[in-house]
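Continuing from the previous page...

OK, I double-checked the sequence for GntR family transcriptional regulator against my notes and this is the correct one:
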Amino acid sequence: MSTTSVPSRSSAPQIADRVVEAILAGRVAPGQRLGEQELADVFGVSRTLVREAMARLSARGMVEVSSRRGWFVVQPSRADATEAFSARIAIETGMLNSLDGPLPRSKLARLKAHYKAERAAIAGSDPGERSSLLGDFHVCLAECVSGPLLADILRDLTARTTLVATLFQSTHDAALSCDEHVAIVAALEQGDAAGAAELMRAHIVAVAAALGSPAPQADPLDPLRQALQAHVHATTQPTTRRPRRLFTDLIPPTPTDTRAPQRRHKEN
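Thanks. Re-ran it with the corrected sequence; updated structure tokens here:
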């Protein structure tokens, strides 16, 4: 996360929401460490408040804690990915199928303004804004079709699938996602809720199908390790030493066992 300071007096829910927004924008990566002191400095709050925010995110499945290393953004498994996308299909198609007519013009206008912003972001140079807007379309749709409760649920689910797409190197094209959003809104404008639901199902399935292999995770200590190894190689001179005699050398050797050694099988 950026270390730029934000207005102080943030509450724990606000801090948690800002972290989720950063995940949606792709600015926080799976496995990234979230230092309590760093976050406290960024938000201008105490570490106690940061811990409360992290506990909220842990309950929402966004972060996990290590007793010795602190808080980390979760690294979803492929099973987690399947579950998250399946949940989104069930919720979003069910939400659309519950409609019994076209959306009000004001809500359609809001959705159209959103996908126009997506197009502008795709044409721009900020991948974070592009990722955030594409993910937030589903939250915006839930707010227009249902209400804040379902929107909050979808915000978390969309953030999880954003982590999945980052971790598994999704190849789904951003412009294609935007086109699929446009088609969903067009179906809603025609009063075709069932058609919109089917388009949404196809859209989420396509995003899930575009997942590739897990991205290699960088070792956060690698730069330090390389620097220290380089220093050791530069300063160490080869020397000839007599081999150290260990106390085990004083123990008489046992008779040679002629039996073939048993092989231990490695658990997979």
